[in-house]
């Protein structure tokens, strides 16, 4: 689809080009706009431009993009734990093993399929037809809180809160080993793993800034229970950051959380406990426990909390019984 428009802006009411395009109802996100500009698919007066360009009266904005045909995501009667819902958005406590949104060739059994069945208002449109309503994501085996938008304006407002670091996302996790610092910040850029495109890694090449704040809740002889808060939201960020520090998330199949080599760190004497924990936990011990954001329509802060799932609770119980250092950190 080709879009062309002459902009009339009154003196003193100039606006950034990316904000203007996001408000036109074309379904373009900020990241999509940036990508299109890099490909010269968005022009001002026939010339390439930047997202921060301030548009002025009489300028011609030319947008050339292909609008994908709907892929027909079908509502499915899949049980889902909706902890909050109104006409504008909803918050879900996601179960383990559920993918957040469909992908081409895999259009069934996702959280989006379930929500389209359970919500009468539907979900907001996106420039990616496979991600209606998706403001942020959780990995398939990560449990906990995630917010979805029902309207385009709410979607844009929530996405902006993430960009401005105003949406707070707090996680609980268990890592192998006795983590040395009580609290701190992990700041290490994350990019795609060139050897395995499905994985991420800490790298200075083709990467983006990634920041994770953490605080130790409790230490055990072989593991550490940690609270982490995202400042940025890169793919697999918490899992990659703690693996990079040498303390992989327990049970993580992609970043070392199931490897016997962890026994070098925790001690081969703990092999029995190591095996028991991995039998109890079939996934990574990572849970999105708290979520807060400003409701764009109701104009108030919203706070949500989801307790740990039973599998992680069972591992914590086992650690208290068999591996307790009795060195609980002051909360």
Explain what you see.
- It is a single chain.
- It is built from 8 helices and 18 strands.
- By secondary structure, it is of the alpha+beta class.
- The protein folds into 3 domains: 63 residues, Structural Genomics Hypothetical 15.5 Kd Protein In mrcA-pckA Intergenic Region, Chain A, CATH 3.10.290.10; 83 residues, Pseudouridine synthase, CATH 3.30.2350.10; 140 residues, Pseudouridine synthase (2-Layer Sandwich), CATH 3.30.2350.
- Strands 7, 8, 9, 10, 11, 15, 16, 17 and 18 form a 9-stranded mixed beta sheet that branches. The protein has a 4-stranded antiparallel beta sheet with strand order 1-6-3-4.
- It is globular.
- The N and C termini lie far apart (55 Å).
